[in-house]
Design goal:
- The chain has 200 residues and is α/β, with parallel strands linked by helices.
- Helices cover 31% and strands 21% of the residues.
- The protein has 5 helices and 7 strands.
- Strands 1-3-4-2-5-6-7 form a 7-stranded mixed β-sheet, with helices on both faces.
- Strand 6 (137-142), helix 4 (149-164) and strand 7 (173-175) form a beta-alpha-beta unit.
- The longest helix has 16 residues, at 149-164.
- The protein is globular.
- Bound molecules: guanosine-5'-triphosphate and magnesium ion.
- Residues 30, 32-38, 52-54, 56-59, 77-78, 142-143, 145-146, 177-179 line the site of guanosine-5'-triphosphate (GTP).
- Residues 36-37, 58-59, 75 line the site of magnesium ion (MG).
Length: 200
Amino acid sequence: MEIKSAKFLLSNTDVSKCPTAILPEYAFIGRSNVGKSSLINMLCNIKGLAKTSSTPGKTELINHFEINEKWYLVDLPGYGFARKSKTTLEGFSKLIKNYFLDREMLTCTFVLIDSRLPPQKIDIDFIRWLGSNCVPFVLAFTKTDKQNELKTSVNIESFKNELFKEWEELPRIFITSAEKKIGREEILNYIREINLGLKN
Ligand code: GTP
Ligand code: MG
């Protein structure tokens, strides 16, 4: 899919003030610093569209970007990083939880996982929480340029094994690098197919 236009619409702390839910929406979530904003920039091919930083906690609001005037990409704050906002029992901020529980047009969530790490409890917990709230999601492993392919596949296998302890089927998995533009076609085609399916 070609990205003809990508424009920042608005930032919000309050899910009720997000744009009216008319267009299909694709959200990016994961631990702070995992590379959510960078992946969005890579998909849109615009450096600096979403703000990135080497320090965790950069994205603090719900950010809507309108793509091709037809669908939204949403950049969210990360979880797993001590921040000022109140966190709930599970360790995810109310902002994040309310977003996932309220957005009617949330079509698919990309849960980003750092490909360099062994399975992290907070990611598994968050995926469980999405599942128990019937939020549709896929996985995207990030920063694969930082290590060799073998290391990436070992970590992905061990993450899958962890998920198989509680899930019968696993969602679609994308292997990405914002730096090397890996996974761009695959993710954009996936979104395109879902968008086409929604029209029928
Ligand atoms: P928060 O908004 O703080 O939750 O972080 P985020 O998940 O949006 O991460 P962000 O995109 O700001 O990236 C964090 C850091 O990782 C930045 O220094 C990025 O340059 C770096 N980074 C992100 N993706 C990649 C990647 O694919 N490869 C490499 N080498 N670095 C990356
Ligand atoms: Mg960010």
